[in-house]
Amino acid sequence: MSKEIISSWDKNAAEWIKVIQNDSIPSRKFTNLAILETIKQLDGDKIVDIGCGEGWLTREMANLGWEATGLDATASLIEEARKNSNQPFEVFTFEDIIEGKNIPNTPFDAAVFNFCLYLKDGLKELLSNTLNQLSKDGVLLIQTLHPYFLIQNDLKFKSQWLSDSWKGLPGNFTDGHSWYARTMEDWLHELNQLENSNFNIREILNDEEKPISLIIKINKI
Amino acid sequence: MSKEIISSWDKNAAEWIKVIQNDSIPSRKFTNLAILETIKQLDGDKIVDIGCGEGWLTREMANLGWEATGLDATASLIEEARKNSNQPFEVFTFEDIIEGKNIPNTPFDAAVFNFCLYLKDGLKELLSNTLNQLSKDGVLLIQTLHPYFLIQNDLKFKSQWLSDSWKGLPGNFTDGHSWYARTMEDWLHELNQLENSNFNIREILNDEEKPISLIIKINKI
Question: Coiled coil where (chains A, B) (predicted)?
């Protein structure tokens, strides 16, 4: 993860904790439920929440009966996560995974990236190296903004860097970091490059029946 | 193909020929170019244009050097196609393919369905049986409306039957047939069911950089 992203999260961690713990992002009503429903349908014992933030999803995983580890690059978020449960939470970066380091408590039956993939380059390596740390028949889940986001925000429908990751969120955020938005074509292109795997994609809708996110399920085969 | 669809095309064939031969559908400027560009990148000698209508694409395939066969369920369109070139054109239905009949002039190196897949049921069998009639490393191309169509037309973002296939087209059409519009999720679900193949998808844009169609490329492996 770039220094820009880590620096932005360091500056905004306290505000983010408030926003998440107050359930302030309206779309999360749909997307939190969607990722939890998807996790409920998985088989396995051990799961890792990569980019766990303050750890709400890692805690929910434990409620569902999983032995769940949470990882995040931002130390103050991991500190907050540790206050709220006795689960293993570790500062660990995407770069650590890309460099081939062993994830704490590996191997896992499932890994989840929930709204934390901001990167353009290195995605294939990040996902491949995560798949490599899963057990046989392991599953990798990604939740990310639906490409329709581009149209809805009057942007050209092409993959592109967007400048402010906090834009539109209900909090007093500063120093937004850039993030790379992908079209569906480019998501499929990335997923087609992963070896020994197949995938399917769910399109998550809000109560106006507009698509808001994708849940990508990659199966190790 | 259902009787409703064949009957609608029988009634509107003359009007369709006029619309196509006058280049009256604005989006075709982009989508015709897109399917031709995709075909140019294929290797092979023999190609089949399934649902060829009055045969414009089959003729263009010949211009690109292919030995091209055109098939359509509507006899009057095949009659028009035969007037305009000496290529093989045959009345042949999706049901013929689904029932496992040999396509005239099979095997092919490539097969194309350009804006003609209206069906809900039987899609897997139609595509599988077409793939079975391709040579080793053969390619099946589909061009279809982009699922964004649903949002653009204020419809719920879910796969659904739409009642009038001619709606919005610049011609005096009557007795529109129904057609089944799919979300991206449901397209991927269908494609994932095809055996011994992989696929990728291009999203074709208009000059406002809005997505208008998908070109699905299925590779036999």
Answer: none
